[in-house]
Amino acid sequence: MPLVGLGTWTATDQVASEAVKTALQLGYRHIDTAWQYRNGGAIGKGIKESGVPRSEIFLCDKLISTRHTRAEEALEETLEELGTDYRHLWLMHWPVPLNPEGNDWKLPKLPDGSPDYYTGTSSSPFTFVDTWLSMESAFRKYPSKHMASLATLEAGSVVPAVNQIEIHPQLPQDKVIEFCRQKNIAVVAYSPLGSPQSTVLTNPKLKTLAESKGNGIGVANLLINWALARGYGVIPKTTSPRRMTDNLKLVDLTEGEMQAIRDVGLSAPKRYCTPAWAAKGVFLDES
Ligand SMILES: NC(=O)c1ccc[n+]([C@@H]2O[C@H](COP(=O)([O-])OP(=O)(O)OC[C@H]3O[C@@H](n4cnc5c(N)ncnc54)[C@H](OP(=O)(O)O)[C@@H]3O)[C@@H](O)[C@H]2O)c1
User: How far apart are the CA of 226 and the centre of ligand 1, in A?
Assistant: First the structure.
């Protein structure tokens, strides 16, 4: 898995295909999308127009919470939308099943406004573990060598290859990263810059540190390289070709600089992605 990929959340159809095409031409080989981003067609178009062979591109997409009971159908539909017959990584977008027959395709709600979770029936309860089992059964029809070397967890027989979670200095996620390392699960940081609302990107201490590194290094580079040095992948989102190029710059960080970046985050801990459906206490760490 290429460690620096392109995020595409909020990249609308109008800009997503151009962004993906440009990123691939600039050397990106990992594209992160999800059915929920509603830009699959544009992503597929960008891949085709880039001229980069499909076989060189690591593509990740995700099963939306309202389709946990129809994993295989969702898998096939997404592939069709993306205009491809495979991708390397298929994630459960969030381990929170939502009512597939609810009043919204993305976040169905009950009359009192709370999320309409799907829990099955009293005789046949349904949790995200059942989702995983149905993803496994779909996966067996689309075998992938990437899973072959992984050990097993308690439920099912296929260990997730990747855990994609929010990580940046304000949410360093040490415990989850360590858990994944022990289980041989690769980690990918989403919102590695702290998302569009980031306060780390504009932090004056980090700006000074970035400037001291020279070579046009910016705070985004510090955050991306901080992640790489900690041993996991990142998928920063941008539709700007200049930022795409910038975000690929590698920079060595000393132990002191790694700690300084961490300290800036720890002085103002924050989780940026808190969708309404996450209210059920699915966070394991630093929540
Ligand atoms: N699995 C999940 O549940 C989940 C949740 C959230 C995100 N994700 C994935 O992770 C990706 C990244 O997360 P994210 O989009 O939340 O946030 P992010 O990548 O941390 O930050 C994106 C923001 O940073 C700006 N930016 C990018 N490069 C920059 C640079 N060099 N200098 C200054 N600003 C820069 C972007 O602006 P411009 O676009 O204007 O350049 C955008 O506003 C998503 O796009 C999505 O693919 C997954």
Answer: 16
